[in-house]
Amino acid sequence: MSSVVNSERIPNNVDLASDKKLQRALEAWQPRFIDWWKEMGPEGFQEDQIYLRTAVSVDHEGWAHFDYVKMPDYRWGIFLTDPVADRKIGFGDHMGEPVWQSVPGEFRNVLRRLVVTQGDTEPASVEQQRLLGQSCPSLYDLRNLFQVNVEEGRHLWAMVYLLHSYFGRDGREEAEALLERRSGNPDKPRILGAFNEPCQNWLSFFMFTYFTDRDGKYQLLALAESGFDPLARTTRFMLTEEAHHMFVGETGILRIVQRTAELMKKNKNEDARAEGGIDLPTMQKYLNFWYSVSLDLFGGEISSNAANFFASSLKGRAKEESYEDHRAVDGIYAMDVPVSAGPGVVSGFRREEVPLRNAMNEVLRDEYIEDAQRGVDKWNRALAEAGIAYKLKLPSRRFHRRTGIYGGLCFDVEGNAITKEEWERRRDEWMPSEADEAYVKSLMTAPIYDAKLMANWIAPPKHGIKGRPVDFEYVKRTA
């Protein structure tokens, strides 16, 4: 097992010190990253001591060290899982060949695009969440927010390392651009739509970390199969951190569900809002929104880019070893494609057999949907145990889509085609309205910085972090 060198300016397990040119380039990029972090990272908490975990090794057992640290002093670094001896490419046209340790010239541009697109999501989420600390429901949750943030920052480092190491001048320019784009900025937005959406309250944060970070999980799983070994090894380590982000989302929503059920029982009309909680229909609207924008992140259902990524052995399927046919040359994927009867109007669907390689985005989306359902089932079990009949539900994959075969078309949450006029009339029935946003925000106007307190709208977690109690002082405020 390779060890992490934490004594260097940039912690790493890639023997960075042996490549002085690369080391100097990354050390020159580092101050710009810190400047970005101070400008666009969590606002108002840069001098606080946060109980964070930091990577000290890359094995699955005890890879993290927990201690207090100021976020600007966090030991971001470059960590790759250990190489697999004699690893062979496991899919696509190059299946069976030795994995690549350098970038094949014919794939240089497309591989750089994959790295940049993945890398752009990491700082974007930090930017989206930068003000949430000022309305935190507890110190436990505040610390979890910051852990997610610093790990997204480290994931950015992982992608920047690849750009600097393997893509020359173009890579260095792309690394600079990653710090120049801004989430939601109309002139320099982030590359993918979901990462330009406002995330201004904790209900959105928990939905984001459950649904949008889960897309990240599946993109990383697909890239972890890559024939370009440095990318595969980088993303495999990132997955160990991504799991915590989804845990934050899943348990955060579960705790809201549990508290809402308690407040409903307390009220004679089962009105959670009357008791200062988040009612279940509002929760469903936020679920509808973040789930649908996360579905778009997988790309079009029928995609020549996806086919080329797979054929070139650059991006596989999640857990490729679970499939029998790793070349996917002759396979098909049957899907219902909407038939247009005019701009934005759907008259019906036709069954289309799509070459499997062209449907790889949809294969990945299928896995995601099945995985996302598990959390929804858990939340519904909590409601049932509390005697609440209401059930949260994933909307149809056709609902509120902006890309792919459903992009720009109107469907209800069940997937039935509707007119644009009906969509506009019923939008607030399915999506957070201005009134919903105002109400949720009204619950989160004052942060909870007392370790023994918890906001009224969320239940406490069952356990604290790393054996610490729930009311541990996870954040030591300086102000």
From TrEMBL:
This protein's record includes keyword Transmembrane: no
Transmembrane segments: none
Keyword Hydrolase tagged: no
Protein name in UniProt: Benzoyl-CoA 2,3-epoxidase subunit BoxB
Annotated GO CC locations: cytosol
EC category: oxidoreductase
Top-rank taxon: Bacteria
InterPro entries in the cross-refs: Aromatic_CoA_ox/epox, Benzoyl_CoA_Oase_BoxB, Ferritin-like_SF, RNR-like
Keywords on record: Oxidoreductase
Protein source organism: Polyangium fumosum
BP GO annotations: phenylacetate catabolic process
EC number: 1.14.13.208
GO MF term list: oxidoreductase activity
